[in-house]
Structure formats: C-alpha cells, structure tokens
Write a structure and sequence with these properties.
The structure is a single chain. Helices cover 61% and strands 7% of the residues. The protein is built from 4 helices and 2 strands. By secondary structure, it is mainly α. It has a two-stranded antiparallel ribbon. β1 and β2 form a beta hairpin. It folds into 2 domains: 62 residues, Arc Repressor Mutant, subunit A, CATH 1.10.10; 33 residues. It is elongated, with a radius of gyration of 26 Å. 3% of the residues are buried.
Length: 115
C-alpha cells in the first residue's frame, strides 16, 4: 500500500493519499461483497472515500469484461471451459509420460546421435 502523508491542519492527524492500485483493490473488495463500513475501519479510510472510489473505479471494472447476458451463454461458456480443462489435463499427462521416458537411465536422446 503506497500511502503518502502530508501535513495540514486537520485534527485527526496528517492527510493521507492512496495510489490507484490500492483504490482499485478496495473497490474490488466492496464489489465482492465486503461491507463498506467494515472495510472502512479495516483500511482506516472514510466510507465517503470508499464510495467515491467505487463510483470512479467501479465502472472501469464492470466494463473491462462484459458478463454473459443469460443462462444459456453461461452454460455454453462452462462447457467450453470444461473441454479446455480436459484437453489441458490430457496434455499434462502426455508431457509427464514423455518426461518419464526421456529421463530413464540409458536414454539420452536418439540412437543416431550415439554413432
């Protein structure tokens, strides 16, 4: 967390400023269900600041990855992701077997290289 403290005449101490990454992480926590009041106490940031950050950075998070609009799209995406996971598992298994064969004692590549 990059926090800069500057002097001013506030009774609660020096004013702090937070970097954009900190603000975006706080907004992500709010959008994932954390209560603003609780997060405000944990981060020692005013609830007003959190709401302002949510207004400013929350829209950017929503527009960066459009959500599927209906259940059929979600099911299709789920099917394609499951197929990809299965394909990657098979690939991993093949690579493990290949590594096992190549790392066996007495096998150092092709037999043509020994001539």
């Amino acid at each position: 967390m990059n926090v800069k403290q500057t002097r001013n005449s506030e009774p609660n101490g020096p004013r702090r400023s937070f970097d954009e990454a900190f603000k975006r992480r706080a907004v992500a926590l709010i959008e994932n269900g954390r209560a603003v009041a609780q997060l405000s106490r944990e981060l020692e940031v005013s609830p007003f600041s959190l709401y302002e950050w949510k207004r400013k950075y929350g829209q950017a998070l929503k527009t960066s990855a459009p959500a599927p609009s209906d259940v059929a799209e979600l099911q299709e995406e789920n099917r394609s992701l499951k197929a990809e996971v299965e394909r990657l598992r098979q690939r991993e298994e093949i690579l493990k077997k290949t590594l096992g064969i190549l790392s066996e004692p007495g096998t150092s590549g092709s037999s043509a290289s020994r001539r």
